[in-house]
């Protein structure tokens, strides 16, 4: 057994105060425990055992599932990290694997060898924690790397009122018993829940229960607790808290983590020269000006840059390819048609435009007073929220064609996400 980092000072369950009654239900040995003292029920008094001594045979793939990568971190590192900030954490590994992954072991306070069955591994972890005398303990499968913090908190909170608590998920599908690939029976799902971990206990009660347990090894610690007469409270589990069991569960976990997201960025740039006229169209807003912008369409330079950014993110060419200037039907066209086309194409390909940012480069007209209207108009055309659209402007310090007020330039970026 190795000790890697200092653990909090042992926390003892306090004896009842003078005159304080301790209610006791004969069928529930847990109720003979004193109520937890609020002053000691902070997270530091909750120890954790993470059992990672399995072989992961059902998941296949050679390497045991707890050592495999899941979105850039091992499954085991994710499971340990989920319990950060609580009390001492004991990691249970197969004896021959101890010392092979120092960076993972360093995340734990104690590392101990497990046994042939999960129950043996849990027992080894509990025995190792005894000297730290935690008030409560959480026992968690390394194979459940995506356990949400809210699930952990719900289990800990339930231990304020009882000796044992565990997360469960209501069974929502009908159940079948199958024989020879045929439905032989449809058992009732009434009152059934799917058991998850972490399963939480008053430490002394579960250690005693494991020591007393005989017969075939139990599937989980709730079974051990119940065999010892402990009442177990069920708190809401979470669909994300899947147990990686078969090979297909890695893909499911990656989907939950969002690892399969396709994130694209595109940029666009456009310039239009000033010409005759008394207004310019910029980002869908008409602004009175002493000149117009020259172009085949309405010459909305900002909207063109943004449209090209969206096409660029999808690697679908540019406006010129989709709406050739040589085609007379686009003469004088509203640029709204181009932007709506690019946004529709993105939707058809499964992308959401999650953000875009347009910068107009000109001395005049002043853009600030119109920026909000431009954001609203671009958002309307793309059918996204205005909060995802940014419009800003800069001068070029009177340098170059924009500085000499010969024309207006615009640049844009667009971020597209497919999940
Ligand atoms: N002797 C064992 C068996 C299992 N476990 C742990 O208990 C958890 C739940 O077990 P399971 O999903 O069944 O894991 P494996 O036993 O590794 O999988 P398999 O049955 O497919 O070999 C896992 O984190 C596993 O590492 C353990 O610590 N010691
Ligand atoms: C403890 C457990 O995660 C509860 O659902 C589960 O029983 C352990 O996995 P196994 O496949 O039963 O070994």
From TrEMBL:
Residues holding 4-CDP-2-C-methyl-D-erythritol 2-phosphate: 270-272, 296-297, 318-320, 394-397, 401, 404
Molecular function terms from GO: 2-C-methyl-D-erythritol 2,4-cyclodiphosphate synthase activity; 2-C-methyl-D-erythritol 4-phosphate cytidylyltransferase activity; metal ion binding
Cofactor(s) listed: a divalent metal cation
Superkingdom in the source lineage: Bacteria
Annotated keywords: Isoprene biosynthesis, Lyase, Metal-binding, Multifunctional enzyme, Nucleotidyltransferase, Transferase
Official protein name in the record: Bifunctional enzyme IspD/IspF
Binding site for a divalent metal cation: 270, 272, 304
Record-listed E.C. numbers: 2.7.7.60, 4.6.1.12
Residues at the site labelled Positions MEP for the nucleophilic attack: 189, 243
Known catalytic reactions: 4-CDP-2-C-methyl-D-erythritol 2-phosphate = 2-C-methyl-D-erythritol 2,4-cyclic diphosphate + CMP; 2-C-methyl-D-erythritol 4-phosphate + CTP + H(+) = 4-CDP-2-C-methyl-D-erythritol + diphosphate
Region named 2-C-methyl-D-erythritol 2,4-cyclodiphosphate synthase: 264-419
Marked site: Transition state stabilizer: 58, 65, 296, 395
Species name: Limimaricola cinnabarinus
Role noted for this protein: Bifunctional enzyme that catalyzes the formation of 4-diphosphocytidyl-2-C-methyl-D-erythritol from CTP and 2-C-methyl-D-erythritol 4-phosphate (MEP) (IspD), and catalyzes the conversion of 4-diphosphocytidyl-2-C-methyl-D-erythritol 2-phosphate (CDP-ME2P) to 2-C-methyl-D-erythritol 2,4-cyclodiphosphate (ME-CPP) with a corresponding release of cytidine 5-monophosphate (CMP) (IspF).
Positions of the 2-C-methyl-D-erythritol 2,4-cyclodiphosphate synthase domain: 264-416
GO biological process: isopentenyl diphosphate biosynthetic process, methylerythritol 4-phosphate pathway; terpenoid biosynthetic process
